[in-house]
Sequence to fold (332 residues):
Amino acid sequence: MLDEVSVGGGRIEVTKQGRPQFTLTNVAGQASAQSLSGPYKVSAAYAVGGRRQEIRFSTSEPDPAGLFRIKSMLNDVDRNTSYVLDGSVTGLGAIPAFDGTIIVRAANTPIGEEEQEADVESEGTSAEPPREAISRFELKGPIRATPGRAELPAFDLTLHAKGHPQIFKGKLTLDFGERVAAAAELAASFIDLDALFAAPSSEERPSPAAVLYMLADEVLTEAATLGDGTLKVAIEQAGLGGDLVGAIDMALAAKDGAVVIDHVNAVLPGDNRVEAAGTLKRGSFGPVFAGPIRVEGAGLRPLTRWAWMRCAPTARRSWVEASRSPRSTGCG
Fold:
């Protein structure tokens, strides 16, 4: 029996096939076990990539086939994001595999240490981050993972926007090579883009141009942090600039921080249809799109007010800078 094992000032280097993957520094924590084969309880804090993280997990004792259950919560302190895993592990002596569920929640306020401990301590129940923390987004679903690949075959993604949750269904695969490669698909019946990109304290809807500008900026930001990946999006209806946009069909591919738009198709107000394809890159003033756009329909008048670019506060400065450049259309 290990009543308590304490570690301070530790360093853990993780390698794969002889190549360093990542390093944990300033490792400090405690562990306990009823026997050398488990069950184990671990609580630790460390730094990775300059960010502080905390982890708590508990395991069952392995069965004769080597399967054991694990319940864990990892808290990325700087990002107010928590990751909860609950499932079974097999193949620990060869190629380990995890099969269970995952919950990812990003909160607007830090998640307290006591709340984390209460979540992970409860055995035989589904561990969840505390509901008291106001979420920015939450992802839930089954997950299967090995050291080289993770699959989320069917997850629910909820984006919280000014009290109006925006709900997607999706699936995701992550391949862990020299760079992470991701392939994701998202689908929704209705998404209020105005609510998603409106300033938190503003009651005024942002213009369609401002929403598209901020959406492009967010896509480029995520592409830069992810590595290589593809994304397909299908939305039956979306609120944009106080109007309804329908039949949104989009396919993107990210590589080296740039985004290739295979296609974007949608039905605009007035039964007008738009088709676009091209590249999205970050310029000196913000996102820059290059490629053909085709708009056709019998009633273009409903689109004329979209030309009035009332940028949201977060996009206004970039729009002003862009207006000084003859190569730019700013928020539009």
